[in-house]
Amino acid sequence: MRNDDDAAAFDTTQPRHSGNAGKRSSVADMYTSWRASTSAPLEPTLGTGEGTSLIADYQKEEQGTWSTAAYFILIVELCERLAFYAATIVFYPYMQNMLNMTQSTANALYNAFNCWAYATCLIGGFVADTYFGKVKSLFVFSVSYILGLVVLFVSSREETWSDYPNSPDGGMGIPGFACSLFFIGLGMGGIKANVSPLLADQIKNSSPKVYEGVFRWFYWAINIGAFTGIIVSPMLHDIIGPKKVIDDGDEDGTAYWASYLFPLCVFIVGLLIYFVGYKKGYYVNVAPKGSLLADCYHASMYAIRAKKTAKNSGNYKPKEHWLDWSETSEDYSTAGKHFKVVLSACSVFLFYPVYWLCYNQMFSNLIAQAENLDKPDWVASEHLNVIGASSLIILIPVFDKLIFPGLTNCGYNPKPLTRISIGFAIAGCSMIYAGVLEYYIQDRGYFIGEDYFVDEGKEKIKIWLQIPPYVLFGISEIFASVGGLEFAYTEAPSSMKSVVMSLFLLSNAAGSVIGMIISPAMKPDTMMTVFFAMGGSLVFLTFPFYCIFRSRAAVSSVDKDQGAIMKDFDSDREDMCAP
Q1: H helix count then E strand count, the chain
Q2: Other C-beta atoms within 10 Å of 417: how many?
Q3: Helix H or strand E encompassing 448
Q4: If 0-12 CB within 10 Å is exposed, 13-18 middle and 19+ buried, where does residue 208 land?
């Protein structure tokens, strides 16, 4: 178990003990002494990681100590992601080839599932921070996850269909699939909101640089699971059971129940591993703080009333932020400060929906595009998703051990906001490449409905030319997705880690909503325009994102009355907080 002193080392909510700091030989020593002698907590601000990054570059960075609990949680997340990707990677062909849905309908339903799954992150974050804590919340939402996988498995079995495998009408195929999406989405959202903050809670000697590495390796574990699920699941339904001739004359294996039984078994194994760690008392659990969102609401109402009262009385003096009017409340002043941080973080998350919209294409329209490419018999259309996962498995250690340390040694240490900007630009280029590839697909043939035919004398484009979008997006995730996880955790007040993480993940739901809105336009003969529009929009948004948050992250709104030592510290602090 982690020593309480480790947990409190950077916890700005802990009371300080008085003492005489004396003279110090360095700004870092002076600042550390001042933090030990003052009873006023440092107000968390955008770009500072709730105060933890203010002294990070002035202290010797220690390698965070990975406890046994941290490794247990990494393994559990690997199993959960393996189960998720093993199930969802075959959703798209299952909907089209077994449930007889059109490309537009399958797109809309897949985006609806994503929207629901990431929207439920809010439920998971609220339940953890308010009632159960992160450790128990993972058990609660795992029940829903397992139930969904069981329904998915049963509803895809031959015994539950009236005309298997030709038509789902009259059987459990479509209603069972819809029901499973509900329960899997609820379980995934609850787990997703809590597992990465819970992992970070287990790390000793934590600092912003340590958290950066923690979330990279967390993402590495995710992609080990994704890689395995994407490889194994499509092979299972194709190898086992009868074949079905689909519209373009190709054959597709119909034993999707095997592809759904596999993730069910893997998830149960992961849950058992998590339970072993729980019974042995490995996990550090931050106790829930009560009705946090309610406190934020009351702080907001108090601030609005206080501002209105000041205007009516003629004593109105503008404040830096409207929530600063809650400072005079005895009950909600702290909640007001925390809520201000949450709102600042959410302004960063507002740019993410277009990124996630592009990300979701790897599991929908890029798979549909692969159907129109020339591929060997041993390669399924959905198999190229493994390229993205494998590129991350290879590149995350390279970036963590070579590239980012090399940049630091050269005097350049990109902060999360800069890394997010770079990730956006790379992801946009990925979609633009997909648009160029689609142009050449359409140049060599034509569509009748959703079926693709090659012009006489021409050949289909090789599927290997679809590798670059997956590799580019994998690289973008190292910057944008990992940077977002790090930013969401370090910016959040200690009592609202899961809630803020859920707000970051909610941006994925917003991306799925956009996908549902434009799904009627996602037809085979319009996909070139769709890919160009997505990629161009994300590249365009990169520039205002970088310009806006580069300047904001360089400014800290630490209380101006914190003491004379802060005056000596200000000039260097700006360099640390800049992206």
Answers
A1: 21, 4
A2: 24
A3: strand 445-448
A4: buried
**Locate tokens 């129109």: which residue?**
372
Angstrom CA distances, 578 to 117, 195, 201, 451, 575, stand at 33, 28, 25, 51, 5
Q: Is 205 helix (H, G, I), strand (E, B) or coil?
A: coil
CA angle 338, 342, 345 (to 5 degrees): 140
Q: Which residue has the tokens 């042995």?
A: 280
Q: Which two tokens stand for residue 87?
A: 């199930």
Q: What residue type is assigned to position 418 of the chain?
A: T
Burial level of 464, CB count in 10 A (0-12/13-18/19+)? middle
| CA–CA distance, 350 with 488 (Å, rounded to integer) | 13
Please report, in tens digits, the pLDDT of each residue of the chain (579 residues total): 444 444 433 343 344 333 333 433 444 444 444 344 433 333 334 444 443 433 334 334 445 578 889 899 999 999 999 999 999 988 988 898 888 888 888 888 988 998 999 999 989 988 888 888 899 999 999 999 999 999 999 999 988 888 777 787 778 889 999 999 999 999 999 999 999 999 988 887 667 778 888 888 999 999 899 899 988 998 888 787 776 656 555 666 778 999 999 999 999 999 999 999 999 888 888 777 766 667 777 788 888 888 888 888 877 788 877 888 787 777 777 777 878 878 877 889 999 999 999 998 988 889 889 989 998 888 878 788 888 888 889 999 998 889 988 888 888 878 888 899 999 999 999 999 999 999 999 999 988 887 888 998 889 999 999 999 999 999 999 999 999 988 888 887 777 788 888 889 889 889 988 988 888 888 888 999 999 999 999 999 999 999 888 765 443 333 333 333 233 333 333 333 333
pTM for the full model?
A: 0.72
Q: Is the peptide bond between 234 and the residue preceding it cis, with omega within 30 degrees of 0?
A: no
β-partners of residue 245 are 251
- CB proximity list for 505: less than 8 A, separation 6 or greater: 118, 121, 189, 192, 193
CA dist 501 and 486 (Å) reads: 9
Distance CA 258, CA 142 (A): 21
State how far the alpha carbon of 447 is from the alpha carbons of 102, 336, 444, 451, 455, in Å: 14, 57, 11, 6, 11
Is the CB of residue 13 less than 8 Å from the CB of residue 494? yes
Nearest-angstrom CA–CA distance, 153 and 151: 5
Q: Which structure tokens are listed for 110?
A: 């897949």
Q: What b/e string do you get for 17-51 counting C-beta neighbours within 10 Å, with b at 16 or more?
A: eeeebeeeeebbebbbbbbebbeebbbbbbbbbbb
Measured over the CA atoms of residue 177, residue 181, residue 183 and residue 188, the dihedral's sign is positive
Residues 338 and 303: their CA atoms lie apart, in Å, by 13
Between CA 534 and CA 492 the distance in angstroms is: 30
Report how far Cα 556 is from the mean position of its chain's Cα atoms. Answer: 26
Read off the amino acid at residue 141: F
The SS3 of residue 252 is: strand
Q: Which residues contact 153 (CB under 8 A, 6 or more apart)?
A: 257, 260, 261, 264
